[in-house]
Amino acid sequence: MDTLFDSGLPSSFLSGANATYIAELYERYLADPDSVDTAWRSFFAELSDGADDIRAELRGPSWNRQDRAVIGTLDPDAEPAKEALKGGAKGKGKGTAAPAEAAPSTEAMRAHTLDSIRALMMIRAYRVRGHLEAQLDPLGLNEPEPHPELDYRSYGFTDADLDREIFIDNVLGLESATLRRIVEVVRETYCGHIGVEFMHIQYPDQKAWIQRRVESELNRTAFTDLGRKTIMQRIIEAETFETYLHRKYIGTKRFGLEGAESTIPAIEQILKRGSQLGLEHVVIGMAHRGRLNILTNVMHKPLEAIFSEFEGNAANPEDVQGSGDVKYHLGTSADRDFDGKTIHVSLNANPSHLEAVDPVVLGKVRARQTQIGPEGRSQAMGLLLHGDAAMAGQGVVAECFALSQLIGYRTGGTIHIVVNNQIGFTTNPKYARSGQYCTDIAKMIQAPILHVNGDNPEAVVHAARVAIEFRQEFHCDVVLDIVCYRRHGHNESDEPAFTQPRMYKRIGEHPTTREIYARHVIDSGLLTQEDVDGMLKDYTDRLDAAFKVGETYRPNRADWLTGSWEGLEAAFGEEEYKQYVTAAKRPALETVFKAISSPPENFDLNPKIARQLKAKAKMGKTGEGIDWATAEALAFGTLVLEGHPVRLSGQDVGRGTFSQRHAVLVDQTDETKYFPLNSIREGQAEFNVFDSPLSEYAVLGFEYGYSAQDPMALVLWEAQFGDFANGAQVIFDQFIAAAEYKWLRMSGLVVLLPHGYEGQGPEHSSARLERYLQLCAEDNMQVCNLTTPANYFHALRRQIRRNFRKPLIIMSPKSLLRHKLCVSPLDALSEGGRFYRVLPETDDLVPDEDIRRVVLCTGKVYYDLLQARRDQEIKDVALVRVEQLYPWPKDSVQRQLSRYPKAEVVWCQEEPANMGAWVFVDRRLQYALEELRNTARRAHYAGRKASASTAAGVARNHTREQAQLIEQALTWSLDALPQPFVRPTGLSQVN
């Protein structure tokens, strides 16, 4: 490290002539801060506590406090200085003047001043770098190396100076102290079992708060006898639970907490102190390490239930459908009482994607805070537990930190606990990260980081208390890094010594945290060995009793439809013919129309937007020509009028990627923002639209979490382009598609993925429709590729109007946003209108029995087919649109096919044959035709051949391909249509 201060001043600069120069500057600064250069003023300010005004904080040596404004310089020949020196200095007592001959010489003043500067520089160095020499590793394998900036000799001191008194003006709570004492205090504060990183914070109040909290003995956690006994009890419970499972279920995976038992009292402290500070709701997210321990010892899940799950009884309740999940992925909720204050704690279920749950927790917290109201930030909080390797290695962690202070996603601060095992699965940290700590990523948002030795439970609990107090005070993220170890391998059947023989030899010799802390409380006289043994026996007896009951334990019905979900139903197997009242009343539509077409008075509207608003006003008057964006606004507006909040987020969603939405109007003069859908009428629910950071994984996870917490809100995430969702595939796979069946947790999230082939190349043509269809089973979600604004309107409202919730994936349009044919009448949105899973032929053709071919399709390609058919005046080819691909509308499709008994059946799509819907619909169409007892007919394919790339990169090629697939669908003979997965004769590979 080249420099100690941001100003670039090396510690070695305090020598020779430089020392005198700095002393002079310092005295001038003390007299008048404005008399020195800005850089020096900043430098001297950094030496202070940072808590108060620097002029009061650094008053200088006590013998030089009098007449500072008069002195102004250290020139002994200057008249003000002479007068001041003659007057002497005021004593500490009653302020009497000392004899003139007792006044120190200029040289002595400079020496004392320089000593103060040097000491303050060293103290600041400990604040900045002290954590580098902190004793954090319980195993002692990574002993910190001495850092030169923490050596008093680097500041010009020698051993001869150790017992010299130095004035430091109440920094560290000491007005003055010997150098030896100063070093003892800063090393005890910053180089003990707690290492604090906070000097990277740019907010003086936050930095000063932490400084006071860790430096002043009065502010340190004072443990009562009861508090220390409770810590002992929690450590015993945490360790004994793990060893008991290890003994009863040898070799069974449980991802135990052995080596990190201090995590349990740390969480307990956060909950208890948090409840005292107004916290009422905590949502916990974590991976599998220690999950069972937290379930039983924090969430108070019955021990009987845990043992029953090990016996295979409880993970898949028979009274609700679902696949269930392994026990170390499951979540639960509980009310915990601390001294009469109740705090609701929920542990979110999580897949093996270690940090995937992080944004889900943040979204749930934000939704809960919104439900609470103005005090939500103080009453609800997220608590995330990370592994050290995952904290550094999983990009979603950084994405979540990036959300922490954004207006649409902030939650008033999250506490991050790192269970730092100092190892990944088998990977040493030096191969797993580039930084000093796994927590370095948290510095991106200036979060304070508390590193603590996990073998010192009291230090861990103290750090946890500081963390929750900081969060409640400043509503910012804070990180607690518990440096510990993993007593077994990645799981209990793994042999870690294969790759870490030295570490696991040390672990085998190392006493457990329970043994270490027991020795501490016994040596201090708090407890006897008999007391500790009794606590251990009592808990073991509880485990034995629960183990016996667990053999016959059966779970009660899941409580997954309580709270915000009360009154909703589980829906497994939606009946296709069932319709829901999704139409809006005509007066409500007119009210929304007025709001979205009328800007405020004196609002400097962009001329292009003004024209759009006039067009919307015309739609409202005539009831014709309603386009996609207008239908969307009407759906949102009518829902908020009915009391349902709407939340839409994603990249540039306020305007819309294609300049179609304009849900936020911006004054062209002063950039004031106006939200028309929030100004419909008094008493409406809130409409929120948030432009997101350039993140998909975290933002989609956040919105999923929000929807899981508040089923009464319509929650939407829109990708800038559909293929951007690729970066959030974990959320789709593990939560959106599977959460209801794995964990009995529903969501009504809407995902909008712009999709369509308009010659823009491979990247932004396809939203990968095939991927979502492949995830579909057991009516787990809906996938739609709609062709009319009216159907879009009803699809959105259907999400809220029915009595259950399912995720909805929509292939949303691009060119259709302004297509002259892609419009709907107002009547289709109001009374009598509804959602259509399948849309039949609309043109006037030959009689049904004379139809030569029926072409089924979905989405934008319909309009290309329609236009070509009209241009060519083809009257014997019917076009049927499958608007909802899943759940597959079997009856509706069969009904349309049965209308045309002599017709050939062709499926037409824009996407290559190995993409899009073809592979999904092929067998389903075959089954539909077989059930119509027409085995001679089968579905044929019209479209692009199978391809590795989603689309052509050259516009000319795209145009040729598009024209060809339209001709295939309308005019080619069945024999000439492509066989998408068969190579020409002589080639054995599939296409």
From TrEMBL:
Needed co-factor(s): thiamine diphosphate
Protein name: 2-oxoglutarate dehydrogenase E1 component
Entry EC no(s): 1.2.4.2
Superkingdom as given in the UniProt entry: Bacteria
Record's keyword annotation contains DNA damage: no
UniProt similarity note: Belongs to the alpha-ketoglutarate dehydrogenase family.
Assembly description: Homodimer. Part of the 2-oxoglutarate dehydrogenase (OGDH) complex composed of E1 (2-oxoglutarate dehydrogenase), E2 (dihydrolipoamide succinyltransferase) and E3 (dihydrolipoamide dehydrogenase); the complex contains multiple copies of the three enzymatic components (E1, E2 and E3).
Primary role: E1 component of the 2-oxoglutarate dehydrogenase (OGDH) complex which catalyzes the decarboxylation of 2-oxoglutarate, the first step in the conversion of 2-oxoglutarate to succinyl-CoA and CO(2).
One GO CC term on file: cytosol
UniProt KW keywords: Glycolysis, Oxidoreductase, Thiamine pyrophosphate
Gene Ontology MF, one: thiamine pyrophosphate binding
Every Transketolase-like pyrimidine-binding domain range: 626-819
Claim: Oxidoreductase is one of the keywords in the record: yes
First-tier enzyme category under EC: oxidoreductase
Pfam family, any one: E1_dh
Compositionally biased tracts (Low complexity): 95-104
Record GO biological process: glycolytic process; tricarboxylic acid cycle
Region of interest: Disordered: 75-107
